[in-house]
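FIELD: query
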Amino acid sequence: MDDAHGSGAGNRRMVIRRKLAAPDPEADTVRRDRLTQRIRSLVEHHRVVTVCASAGGGKTTAVAQALHGLDRPVAWLSLDGTERAPGRLLVYLEAAVEPHVPAAGQVASDALRDGIEFGEAAGLLAESLQGSELVLVCDNVERITVDEGSVDVLSALARYLPADVNLVLISRTGVPLEFGSIGGRSRVGELGEEDLAFDPDEAAAALRLTGHGDVDVQQVVDLTGGWVAGVLFEGWRTAGVADHRADALRDYLSANIFRTLSPTERTFLLHTSPLAEISVADAQALGRMDAARTMARLRSKRLPARWSRDGTRLTPHPQFREFLVDELARTEDPDRIRRLHRLHAELLVRQGALEEAVDALLRLGDTEGAWQQAAVALPDLVARMDFASAARWLDALDVSARKPTPEVGTVVLRVSFALEQCGRGNALLDRHGYDWLPGPDSPYFEEALLLAAWCQWHSGRLGEARALTERLPAGRAREVAENMLALADGGSPPFPAYAPAPSGTGDGLLMRIGYFRGRLQGMDRPARCEPWRSVLGAPWIIAGLRATGRLNEAMAMYEVRRESWQPPWLHAFDAVDLMIDLGRHDEAWAALERGRRLIADTGSRLYHVFGLLNEAKLCLRLDHDTEAADRALADALASGAADYAFSRELYQLWRGLSLLLRDRNAEARTELEACVASMRVGDRRLELATAAAYLAEAYWRLGEEEASDAAAELALAESAAQGSQHLLLTALTDVPAVAVREADASPTRMSRWHEITAALSGQDALRVVPRAPRLLLEEFGEPVLTLDGNQVQVRLSKSVELLSYLIGAGREVSRQELLDALFDSRNDAAGRSYLRQALHRLREVLPEALVPRQDGDRFSLASPDLVRGTTQTVLDALVEADHQDGEVRMGTLRDALARADRGPYLAPLPGLWVEQRRAEIGERVTGGRIEAAKLAFRLSRYREARRLVDQVLTTSPYREQAWQLAISLAHASGDDDSVLTLYQRYRVAMREFGVAPSAEMRRLVTQLRR
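FIELD: result
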């Protein structure tokens, strides 16, 4: 770090380079030139460049070589994982760019102190680089991508970069940047594994440089796929230099690098291994008074490390540093190692790197020393929402045993809430009571009382939670607390509106309450990166998206967080519900088991109850196992399900379904009547449509037809009011006769019940595709094939047909089936040859991993998750739209139909199978247009509805629903003359098909003409 940067560098000794060191002169010239040209071209044409490949792929070296000599300033930040929190990452990025753009100093830090959220602070930092022509490189990005907040920071930085500034991200994994629009992706240029890999000529050149040019190069490349480190190690293994032991790299570093150094140089590197970046001053602080002289000697050695231009800073590559740390532990005296780490901790304290100092002191076992620094650092750590690190400190320092100050105690409560670990907060309250809680004059007063009440409420101490709530003054915190208590006592206090950003813990809690009360509007992904909602509220955003039928969005958000530290709700409840909805039996049970383990660590009585209720739901909906469901329900009741109104209602709901499945209808009616009544009184509407649908079935079986109709209408009305048609459809899947009866009783086939029965009878299951494809085939209109966003030209149209057929089949296909479909049943030599040519032409333009695979006479997609056709995207969207309502559904239908508007399926291609598939898809798209027109009519968007109906009647004049809708639109617009004109046109169209006008159409016209 440059001395000029001072304390603005944040709490870490960062790895920053003003200029890049010169590349290795022995590097292979052909590969270096190829990659340099490629990377410089990407930097020239794209504001953001991602270089993603596995470890040892040569990513960092390639970028360093490409940027060396570039007539632009370059800032380089190597991440080591300590930045896995958005606030900390922002500070490090700020420090990286400041030496080149002094105006950027403190921009992000000042913004964070002013309460500006992370994404906006990152945007301010990006905008401060205007006119600098800077290239900012972030290496080892994979170490922070598991943290959503850090990804949000990088996304905002990329989104707001000035036109003259570039961001280069080097990572072992993909970087999931969010641009907020499809167009934003065009700003990103990508260099991947295949770009970095050695081809045989380059591998041969590299192996010659290592003295092993006599090996079978093609065999090495085949075995390793061209992976740089793999080529070298496989070459050495083939030549007898290294074997297959797991520590081959360590042996190589030891024998070929470390042991070639003098004893003084080796000792110096070992004793400075605690440092990510070695400078003379820092090495001297660790007791190496010979630092200047030794580093001067090391400068001439070839080490896996980077040097600053002036030779004063040495940064070992991560693998080399890991080797040095291991070697220090293996060879040095424990007392000496301890003294080194003590000196390192003291250095960190002097530098103001308190967070790193706390971790260093904890590793030394110095809890008192660590506590002194942690007490200062904890509030900032939690303010940055780095809750995982804070929790680790709290546990290691046994903070609950220390008498809390109002500030530190509030930190404990915030961490408890953020990680859904009410047991952590309750331990503090049990040990020290309530006297330490902040008073009315403290800025923490309302937050601390609210979170303390939340901890007690979660553990079943409802009286204590009520007492704490009553100490809150009138205002938003009191309203949130009373809404929380109402979920237990059954009340229905007014629900406060979701607050605009910035918000705090109270608004994070309100999201959770709002979900159970069915306040789903406004719970979707916030437009801005607002931490308490977008980060900590993510599990409830996912739950809300799922409830409103936006399963693709819900699944995409879940996949990003699947392996993260996110609170138990995500894994114990969101994941189970999503897998149940998608019919993924094994994954649902796996999620439930994982959830049980996470719930056990929360200290929450309520989560334990909800876990059992979710188990009952899973048993009923996927396994139809009423005995197992009843056992889970009995356990839930014994654990306190009846103590909270909303858990009691869910117990009654699933108990009612279990009884229905066993035809114990009178008992089911009793449970479900109580459930519906309680939900309506308490204004808890999330599952009200579900309960009403089950109750309608119970009434019908008992002969109470009027009550059944009333319950069914309640279910439909609640579904429409809450926008939760997905939940209603899911319930009606359990009792489909309810929808069929109501549709039969409807006077017109335009009714909502007919729409619902059509959705229930659809043959296609809900599907989600959580990751973007690498290979996309545009199948509407003129076919277009794109690979990683770039168009690919295929020389044979049959190659496109082959690919489209395999995508549509979604399974392994025989050679005979392909010959029958693509070549008019020709099984002669010419047809087989043509099939081989079609496959060969795909191999010419696609990477091996994406070329269709042939195994004897069987063909399939090699990587089906990475290949997609737009036809399936549109069809999946139409199925998903059936589970949505209102504006959400309209948006999904619009997007799907816009893609289909490019033209018919594979428009220029002939062939019987293409024509059959084209007709099938055209029929589905036409049905989607009718559904969109009906929805637009219901939303009083008559112009849009008329445009959609006209499109349908132009291509499909036999669609009676379209004619009915056209006539209804004319009447709604006050054009009575057009009603008769349209009816006459309808009669002419039907006459052409030899069909008489339907009785329903005659009734409609007669009714409208009255």
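FIELD: remark
Residues 121 and 810 are 45 Å apart (CA to CA).
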